């Protein structure tokens, strides 16, 4: 004989009569199993009103499991236009022993009661014995705990290791990088007390990032170094302050500042700002004519030649020969009229009479632009060798420039 259960948390109700049709709304039983609710206060069924698009049929559905003869309801609710549910006034699953049973029907509250009738049976009985759905058994929670606890433990270990690494890195910076104040810096007569406002990041590089900033009514570029890269900042600052470093084809230096205290110190270099950006950015966005190619190449070569030149007898002193050591299209900026100017002297090396250039001249710069002797480690540590390395890199930049030139210039 068939029995039914009275409404209880997680159970199903007596069918109140199916109403076939294509009404714009339909009532269905709504239920959604929640394990946490079972543990605390139980799950509850409710009646919901379903609505759909015009000329679309509405249905109700139910899903459940059969765990060792015990029915466990998973979900009940509304189901939108599905041809498999047409004209079904009872919710019946006919598939052979699925893992999760599913049925849908058409009519108000037709999913209150649901059945599993294999295809071999000739007709659907009027009533089918059902049991009260019970909360998920503790074994499920135990399985979940055994699965999740190791994952959570591994995650916690990874996070703790990362935190320890960061903490250790901040507490014990590299030996070669001092953590104290980088030392007194002569005030910039150009900056003085003028307000400097950072606007947006324009580029990121090996030693820091470059901001577009506003200084009174002018735009400037601010290259910001973290304290860990003090050596690069110091080298570039000293190169810019050498005699004779004012040249049309070298980036114009405005001043330097330090911001913050202790480990939060930032080292700033303020230079002229050029809206067109680097040669790399320009060639990515556009091609150049033959005349433009020649002009960019000429001004770029003029800047590098001046950098390499040893010029005594200047008004402000003696300009030594300087090897850039990181010539690439990213370190060549373009002015509004496409005049090239060379930037980024963080790796530059100066050659002064009677002074050693130092010992640490390994593989520095960008590998793509390195000369073969640099890649092979067969460097002759003489001035001319370093200058030739710059010329090799310049040749690769010229090749980049030529590869973005139009095939022909009708005005040439």
From TrEMBL:
It is an enzyme of class 2 (transferase). It catalyses: L-threonyl-[receptor-protein] + ATP = O-phospho-L-threonyl-[receptor-protein] + ADP + H(+); L-seryl-[receptor-protein] + ATP = O-phospho-L-seryl-[receptor-protein] + ADP + H(+). It is found in: Cell membrane; Membrane. PROSITE patterns: PROTEIN_KINASE_DOM, PROTEIN_KINASE_ST. The keyword ATP-binding applies. Residues 196-412 form the Protein kinase domain. This is Serine/threonine-protein kinase receptor. Its cofactor is Mg(2+); Mn(2+). The lineage of its organism: Eukaryota, Metazoa, Chordata, Craniata, Vertebrata. GO terms for cellular component: activin receptor complex. It is a single-pass type I membrane protein. The keyword Oxidoreductase does not apply. Belongs to the protein kinase superfamily. TKL Ser/Thr protein kinase family. TGFB receptor subfamily. It comes from the Eukaryota. Keywords: ATP-binding, Cell membrane, Disulfide bond, Glycoprotein, Kinase, Magnesium, Manganese, Membrane, Metal-binding, Nucleotide-binding, Receptor, Serine/threonine-protein kinase, Signal, Transferase, Transmembrane, Transmembrane helix. InterPro entries: Kinase-like_dom_sf (IPR011009), Prot_kinase_dom (IPR000719), Ser/Thr_kinase_AS (IPR008271), Snake_toxin-like_sf (IPR045860), TGFB_receptor (IPR000333). The gene is ACVR2A. One of its GO terms (biological process) is cellular response to growth factor stimulus. The chain crosses the membrane at residues 144-165. PANTHER family: ACTIVIN RECEPTOR TYPE-2A, TRANSFORMING GROWTH FACTOR-BETA RECEPTOR TYPE I AND II. One of its GO terms (molecular function) is ATP binding. Its EC number is 2.7.11.30.
């Amino acid at each position: 004989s068939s029995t039914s259960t009275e409404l209880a948390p997680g159970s199903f109700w007596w069918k109140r009569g199916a109403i076939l049709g294509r009404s714009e709304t339909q009532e269905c039983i709504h239920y959604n199993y929640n394990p946490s609710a079972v543990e605390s206060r139980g799950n509850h069924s409710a009646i919901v009103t379903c609505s759909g698009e015009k000329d679309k049929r509405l249905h109700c559905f139910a899903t459940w499991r059969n765990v060792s003869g015990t029915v466990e309801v998973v979900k009940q609710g509304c189901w939108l236009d599905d041809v498999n549910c047409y004209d079904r006034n009872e919710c019946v699953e006919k598939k052979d022993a699925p893992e999760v049973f599913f049925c849908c029907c058409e009519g108000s509250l037709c999913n209150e009661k649901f059945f599993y009738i294999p295809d071999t049976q000739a007709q659907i009985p009027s009533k089918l014995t059902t049991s009260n759905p019970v909360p998920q058994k503790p074994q499920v929670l135990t399985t979940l705990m055994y699965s999740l606890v190791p994952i959570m433990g591994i995650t916690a270990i990874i996070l703790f290791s990362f935190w320890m690494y960061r903490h250790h890195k901040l507490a014990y910076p590299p030996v070669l990088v001092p953590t104290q104040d980088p030392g007194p810096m002569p005030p910039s007569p150009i900056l003085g007390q003028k307000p400097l406002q950072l606007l947006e990041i324009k580029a990121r590089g090996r030693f820091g990032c470059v901001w577009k900033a506003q200084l009174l009514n002018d735009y400037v570029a601010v290259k910001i170094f973290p304290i860990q890269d003090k050596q690069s900042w110091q080298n570039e600052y000293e190169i810019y302050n050498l005699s004779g470093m004012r040249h049309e084809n070298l980036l114009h230096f405005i001043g330097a500042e330090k911001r913050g205290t202790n480990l939060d110190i930032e080292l700033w270099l303020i230079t002229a700002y050029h809206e067109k950006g680097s040669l790399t950015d320009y060639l990515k966005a556009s091609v150049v004519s033959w005349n433009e190619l020649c002009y960019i190449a000429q001004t770029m070569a003029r800047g590098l030649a001046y950098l390499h030149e040893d010029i005594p007898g200047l008004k402000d002193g003696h300009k030594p020969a300087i090897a850039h050591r990181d010539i690439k299209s990213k370190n060549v900026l373009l002015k509004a009229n496409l005049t090239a100017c060379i930037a980024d002297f963080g790796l530059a090396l100066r050659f002064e009479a009677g002074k050693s250039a130092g010992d640490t001249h390994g593989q520095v710069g960008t590998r793509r632009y390195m000369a073969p002797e640099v890649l092979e480690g067969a460097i002759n540590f003489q001035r001319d060798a370093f200058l030739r390395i710059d010329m090799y890199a310049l040749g690769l930049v010229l090749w980049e420039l030529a590869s973005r030139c139009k095939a022909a210039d009708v005005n040439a």
